């Protein structure tokens, strides 16, 4: 019986999609063999973008045999630390970018890594799970967006990543606004734990994405000679826009923190009020317990034991004393 061969959404070489790009012209989809033919005889003014799925074991084999990539790129694939960074290796750019998964849900921090190798001849990108930003970039290229250079493609990716993050921040802001309105109106239905979950997701996103602007700015200090001045300016602008989104993310975290503190303060206030009422009830019941304990002693000489109205007299005294204690406690509470 034949065993089915799993492709993980890619072809036999692990290629998910490939494009041949040229400045001022729409992208042309190409396969692995067409990419090999072009790489054997590259044309001036053109470059390729090949995107691979690392879940397919054939991807790394194909890249090692035909890609001609820097060894640092393969080291980055197998490193345990996946902090966001952009490095220069053998006159090529190696980017390790963290991104949210395709169809990301804000209730869970579904984040994975994208590895990108950029040279003057082309861009090689690889991932293990479908990511939101790279999918937006593929749709833009497929719909006719023109890219003048491999660095321009990287800039487009960073801007798509910022747009995805902006969408996440907007959704989080809508949830926080709802919780804040409910808190101010006194009918908070979203629990404090839900805000804590949202805050943890945002903290993880910022922790993984925050190093990205600094990495790009370090690259711009000493960029490779083949990066055009216009590409450098676009890269700087995209990084500044991404930094603004990160600032909004940080401000939203602080807002959630303040909202959690306000909810905690109200919960503590309600608990204190409940404890005070419980204390009043306990103190009011204290005379009844004391008198009941004393009158219930099985000894002689109990006061009013033989009086025909002794029960009502004791009950009246207990009532008067309880009312007096309650009045004192309520007056003290009113003064506070």
TrEMBL record:
<feature type="transmembrane region" description="Helical">
    <location>
        <begin position="275"/>
        <end position="297"/>
    </location>
</feature>
<dbReference type="InterPro" id="IPR045861">
    <property type="entry name" value="CorA_cytoplasmic_dom"/>
</dbReference>
<protein>
    <submittedName>
        <fullName>Transporter</fullName>
    </submittedName>
</protein>
<keyword id="KW-0813">Transport</keyword>
<keyword id="KW-0175">Coiled coil</keyword>
<feature type="transmembrane region" description="Helical">
    <location>
        <begin position="309"/>
        <end position="330"/>
    </location>
</feature>
<keyword id="KW-0812">Transmembrane</keyword>
<feature type="coiled-coil region">
    <location>
        <begin position="235"/>
        <end position="269"/>
    </location>
</feature>
<keyword id="KW-1003">Cell membrane</keyword>
<dbReference type="InterPro" id="IPR002523">
    <property type="entry name" value="MgTranspt_CorA/ZnTranspt_ZntB"/>
</dbReference>
<keyword id="KW-0997">Cell inner membrane</keyword>
<comment type="similarity">
    <text>Belongs to the CorA metal ion transporter (MIT) (TC 1.A.35) family.</text>
</comment>
<dbReference type="InterPro" id="IPR045863">
    <property type="entry name" value="CorA_TM1_TM2"/>
</dbReference>
<keyword id="KW-1133">Transmembrane helix</keyword>
<keyword id="KW-0472">Membrane</keyword>
<keyword id="KW-0406">Ion transport</keyword>
<keyword id="KW-0862">Zinc</keyword>
<dbReference type="Pfam" id="PF01544">
    <property type="entry name" value="CorA"/>
</dbReference>
């Amino acid at each position: 019986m034949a065993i089915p061969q799993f492709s993980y959404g890619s072809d036999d070489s692990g290629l998910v999609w490939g494009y041949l790009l040229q400045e001022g012209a729409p992208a042309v989809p190409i396969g692995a063999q067409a990419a090999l033919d072009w790489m054997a005889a590259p044309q001036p003014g053109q470059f390729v973008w090949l995107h691979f799925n690392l879940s397919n074991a054939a991807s790394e084999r194909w890249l090692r045999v035909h890609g001609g990539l820097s060894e640092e790129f393969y080291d980055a694939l197998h490193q345990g630390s996946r902090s966001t960074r952009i490095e220069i290796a053998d006159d090529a750019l190696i980017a390790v970018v963290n991104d949210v998964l395709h169809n990301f849900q804000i209730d869970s921090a579904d984040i994975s890594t994208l590895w990108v190798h950029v040279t003057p001849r082309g861009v090689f990108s690889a991932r293990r799970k479908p990511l939101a930003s790279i999918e937006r970039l593929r749709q833009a290229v497929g719909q006719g967006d023109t890219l003048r250079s491999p660095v321009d493609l990287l800039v487009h990716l960073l801007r798509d990543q910022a747009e995805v993050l902006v969408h996440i921040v907007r959704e989080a802001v809508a949830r926080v606004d709802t919780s804040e309105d409910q808190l101010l109106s006194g009918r908070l239905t979203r629990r404090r734990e839900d805000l804590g979950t949202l805050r943890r997701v945002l903290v993880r996103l910022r922790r993984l994405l925050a190093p990205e602007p600094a990495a790009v700015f370090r690259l711009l200090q000493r960029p490779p000679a083949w990066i055009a001045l216009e590409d450098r300016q676009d890269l700087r602008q995209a990084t500044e826009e991404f930094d603004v989104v990160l600032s909004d993310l940080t401000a939203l975290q602080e807002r959630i923190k303040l909202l959690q503190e306000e909810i905690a303060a109200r919960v503590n206030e309600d608990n204190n009020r409940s404890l005070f009422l419980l204390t009043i009830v306990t103190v009011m019941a204290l005379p009844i317990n004391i008198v009941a304990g004393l009158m219930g002693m099985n000894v002689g000489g109990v006061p009013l034991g033989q009086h025909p109205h002794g029960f009502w007299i004791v009950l009246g005294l207990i009532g008067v004393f309880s009312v007096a204690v309650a009045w004192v406690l309520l007056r003290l509470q009113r003064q506070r």
